[in-house]
Design brief:
- The protein is mainly alpha-helical.
- 47% of the residues lie in helices and 3% in strands.
- The protein has one domain: Glycosyltransferase, CATH 1.50.10.10.
- The chain starts with 7 loop residues before the first helix and ends in an 11-residue tail after the last helix.
- The structure holds alpha-D-glucopyranose.
- The site of alpha-D-glucopyranose has 7 residues, from α2.
């Protein structure tokens, strides 16, 4: 007996219900059990979901995220608005001084792109302009932080100093840079994530010990932005963060120009030019973009879902899109659902373990935008159809097995619900995240 697949209307209702349940009043937790605070790029995608439900709430999602912004412009990966038990590493592990408490690291800067989505969806122009006017200087400060503090020598490549800043936490791309670190802490007993989710779907203890060693290094530098950027034991240009930043630069440049922020628009144009050139240094001999270890000078051995994101940044040509489409076809010969987070032919591939294989819908959203705008609508349509099928058959989980589509990680996930509402439930809305 087969179970009838849920209708689009019932999925809509479920997605709305997930956002309502995960709403903590002005901000949304990614998932009740595993992630009980406000996460940076999750909130940006969630704001896109709210933009089709409740514009006021969509603006709020971005505004509460910026309550965590540091004086130097950094928008932290997590804002700990209220205490919650059962989470590690919580506020005390980071040793930062901000109020509300935050981590000391950032996450992929999707916020400016989300602000453009919300701005364009807001039917009340006066409100939209007022809200954006207040938010825009903060967004620009966060981009300045990436381009100046995280690229202190103006190379056009921004550095991440902790794998969690990539949002693709344990991708095989970070294996070599992490292997160079000698752990100085043992945090296995402090972890809480394995009590909520099957350990085989989570990163290993060896990984946690190394990433928490990086936190200790930054604490010893009192989280001074430039000192951290110049001296932490891990410094990588993640092709994902670099792409998401440059795309968000474009969106922010558009908004700044529209509202008459001329100096900000000029600064953004400069950063776009410099960072677009930077992508040349990320190309492997095969023409595929990869992350670059800024300490060793080596490109990552493995190709990941991040390698598709330069198209989303409006970098590259139609030929690049064709080349990436061919790569995706190869991956499709051993998987049923695009886009696996990591090369399924690589030895490091693990279709169940977090960012080492599973499919994430927020990444698919950006990849689809890139293929569509580069002229490969066929590929964009295919990824969108597979993404729709994943939700229809397996629900709103955190991530999916690329072979079977099986639900993995946390359930009732906010950004998966938001991707349904903002994207998959609206096949007529077009493939580009912003115009
Ligand atoms: C995990 C993911 C990260 C995400 C967070 C909350 O840490 O790797 O990208 O932001 O969960 O969903």
């Amino acid at each position: 007996m087969t179970t009838p697949s849920p209708t689009s209307a019932s999925l809509d209702a479920l997605a709305r219900d997930i956002l309502a349940r995960n709403d903590r009043g002005g901000y949304t937790v990614p998932n009740e059990k595993v992630y009980p605070f406000q996460w940076n790029w999750d909130s940006a995608f969630v704001a896109m979901g709210f933009a089709v439900l409740d514009i006021e709430r969509a603006w709020q999602e971005l505004e509460t995220l910026f309550l965590g912004q540091w004086d130097d412009g950094m928008v932290p990966s997590i804002v700990f608005h209220k205490p919650a038990a059962n989470y590690y590493p919580g506020p005390s592990a980071w040793g930062t001084t901000h109020e509300p408490p935050t981590t000391g690291i950032s996450q992929p800067p999707v916020a400016a792109t989300a602000a453009r989505v919300v701005f364009e969806a807001d039917p009340d122009r006066a409100r939209a302009e007022a809200r954006l006017r207040a938010l825009l200087p903060k967004l620009v400060a966060s981009h300045r932080w990436w381009h100046e503090i995280r690229d202190p020598d103006g190379t056009g490549l921004v550095a991440i100093v902790h794998p969690w800043e990539t949002g693709r936490d344990n991708s095989p791309e970070w294996d070599a840079p992490l292997a160079a670190i000698t752990p100085t802490v043992d945090v296995a007993a402090l972890r809480k994530d394995k009590t909520h989710v099957n350990a085989s779907e989570r990163p290993t203890d060896a990984f946690y010990n190394r990433v928490m060693t990086l936190v200790e290094e930054a604490k010893a530098l009192h989280w001074d932005g430039k000192a951290v950027a110049r001296s932490l034991s891990l410094r990588v240009c993640d092709v994902g963060v670099q792409s998401i930043l440059v795309r968000a630069d474009h969106d922010l440049h558009h908004l700044a120009t529209l509202l008459g922020f001329a100096d900000e628009a000029a600064a953004l144009a400069g950063w776009i030019e410099r960072s677009t050139k930077g992508f040349d240094r990320l190309r492997g001999d095969d023409g595929i973009w990869r992350s670059l270890d800024l300490r060793s000078g080596k490109l990552a051995a493995s190709v990941s879902s991040g390698s598709f994101l330069p198209l989303y940044a409006r970098v590259g040509t139609r030929e690049d899109a064709d080349h990436l489409a061919a790569l995706l076809d190869r991956w499709g010969s051993v998987t049923s659902y695009a886009v696996p987070s990591s090369d399924p032919f690589a030895e490091t591939y693990d279709p169940h373990r977090y960012w080492r294989g599973p499919v994430w819908l927020v990444v698919n959203r950006m990849i689809v935008d890139g293929f569509a705008t580069a002229g490969r609508l066929d590929v964009a349509d295919r990824i969108a159809a597979q993404s729709r099928e994943l939700v229809g058959r397996h629900g709103f989980c955190e991530y999916f097995d690329p072979r079977t589509g099986d639900a993995l990680g946390g359930r009732d996930f906010s950004w998966t619900a938001a991707m349904w509402l903002a994207w998959l439930a609206r096949p007529d809305a077009g493939h580009a995240v912003t115009g």
